[in-house]
Design a protein that fits this description.
about 120 residues; mainly beta; binds FE2/S2 (inorganic) cluster; elongated; four-stranded antiparallel β-sheet; Rieske Iron-sulfur Protein
């Protein structure tokens, strides 16, 4: 049997929101619901505290790295002071080609959303 974690009422998973559920950050881009593992590959920020940008990417709450929620790959490296370090963003993007964020499956039953 697959482990499932309850996210909450499906009505609460509105576009632009992200919710913590076990090891996953579960969100709604407005186009799709997604679940990715919560720890940013940069310095481990909780991605459930992040946001969703206009492109539907998940934005890290600490230094603004962005992730493609379908592939788990970083699409923009850490911003701020980290953006000034040559090769850092490219390095993390390469890292997540090899070690993307884990992805979970989002399912709904009877008005409740779960991730597994
Ligand atoms: S911890 Fe996520 S970008 Fe730094």
């Amino acid at each position: 049997m697959t482990d499932e974690v309850e996210v909450g009422a499906t009505a609460e998973l509105r576009p632009g929101t992200i919710h913590p559920a076990g090891r996953y950050a579960v969100g709604n881009t407005g186009e799709e619901r997604f679940a990715v593992t919560r720890r940013c590959r940069h310095l481990g920020a909780d991605l459930a505290d992040g946001s969703i940008d206009d492109d539907g990417c998940l934005v890290c709450p600490w230094h603004g790295a962005t992730y493609d929620v379908a592939s788990g790959r970083m699409t923009r490296g850490p911003q701020g002071i980290f953006a000034k370090i040559p090769g850092l963003g490219a390095g993390f993007k390469l890292l997540t080609r090899i070690l993307p964020l884990g992805r979970g499956e989002v399912v709904e039953r009877d008005g409740t959303t779960f991730v597994r």
